Amino acid sequence: MPYGQRWRQHRRLFWQHFHPGVIFKYQPIQKAEAHKFLGKLMESPSRLTHHIRTLFSAIMLKVVYDIDVASEDDEHVLLLDDAMEALSLSSHGGFLIQRLPFLRHVPAWLPGAGFLKVLARSRAANHRLKHEPFDKLKASLERGELHPCVAADLLARKEAKDELDAVVDEDDLLKNVCTITFEAASDTSFAMLQAVFVAMALYPDVQKKAQAELDVVVGPTRLPNFEDVDSLTYVHAIIKEALRWHVEAPLCIPHCTVEDDTLNGYFIPAGTVILPNTWMISGREMMHDPDAYKDPDEFRPERFILDGKLDPSIRDPDAFAFGFGRRICPGRYMAHASLFMAVASVLHVFDIGLPLDERGKPIAIKYEQTHGLLSYPEDCRCSIVPRSSAATSLVLDALRKLPPTTT
Ligand code: HEM
Predict the structure, then answer these.
(1) Is the beta carbon of 137 within 6 A of some atom in ligand 1?
(2) Domain coordinates in residue numbering, the chain
(3) Residue 194 and residue 67: Cα distance in Å, rounded?
(4) Domain 5-400 has CATH 1.10.630.10
(5) pLDDT tens-digit series, residues 356-393
(6) What is the DSSP letter of 246?
(7) Is residue 18 lining ligand 1, measured as CB closer than 6 Å?
(8) Residue ID of nearest Cα to ligand 1 atom 21
(9) How far apart are CA 225 and CA 227, in angstroms?
(10) Which of 350, 46, 334, 102 has its CA nearest to residue 214?
């Protein structure tokens, strides 16, 4: 969506629900879903990627639509997979059709035209994600049922005709805001938590330091809370380092200049597509810049810490990982909060190690990133075992205390 009034309407509605002053409202959801995640990891650790995907989708479905993800294979989570498939493949010219537009007229049964099926599946999934949960929620609200969630709040404001004004008086815009929130939040956080698991398997000393911090701050009788955030400096540094080390959107989202510009003597006409290389540019300015981050390929959270506190003089990866300028990710505070609760909870109760073969011997894994608009770790196999029987009891106890589901 180009910059303009319509984009501003979307952005404003989005920001009202995700700026740093309001996201504390979602903490109980983030905590409850993190605890469910711990339970699933205990039950079937080999399904790690599936559980991570469910975790972030479940948080956002609850926050946006008040939907509880009850089953292992929730239809919304599966739909999200299909919806994101075309986006991921189409980025950076992944489809020949982008260069040869006449290909859209070839029949789908022709050999090599499989991309049309991907596009059709993705389009159908996006359509369902945009309309079904929203329409269902609206119908439920009209029956007088209560749903504290973003979509209900947007509808209430529309009903009250408050500051949203006349142009926002259409469900389509509200539906866009809800769908993009769910889609933009789930896959990005998914990739980042995968990277944390890989890092913990590859850097056991880092993991031990985080666990030592958690043992002192949180102790053996409870799971981490949001109140612990300021005392868990090392856990915080792990999240910062993951955002830097695993360059999740290596070419960000394409931007486009709206007017003529010059940079370092180069003339850049209006309408030029810009792909910021968030990995590193020739001026060595971004996440793997060895001048800013010594040994940039190493996972080293200590680089962000000085005298036991986060060091503000170290370049903050948030300045790149979440994009740029007025398009910078408006969900970044929410992302940090969800990641904090997941990472602190997991490290408090589990030991993460290299994956094991049938004879119990560690398998060497290598950290590499996939290609695409969003990049994931290539191999995220690892072993996940409870740190102690007390840790197992903490998880079981937390599961027993979960609030009842509403859907
Ligand atoms: C670790 C997690 C996340 C990462 C790395 C991430 C990264 C990004 C990036 C790189 C962009 C493009 C910015 C640009 O064009 O310059 C973006 C856009 C966006 N993100 Fe995130 N994001 C994350 C989590 C979230 C979450 C949790 C939400 C919602 C709660 C969210 C909502 C959005 C939205 C709505 C946009 C579009 C903004 C616009 O075009 O105006 N993101 N994100």
Answers:
(1) no
(2) 5-400
(3) 24
(4) yes
(5) 999 999 999 999 998 878 889 999 999 999 999 999 99
(6) S
(7) yes
(8) 329
(9) 5
(10) 350
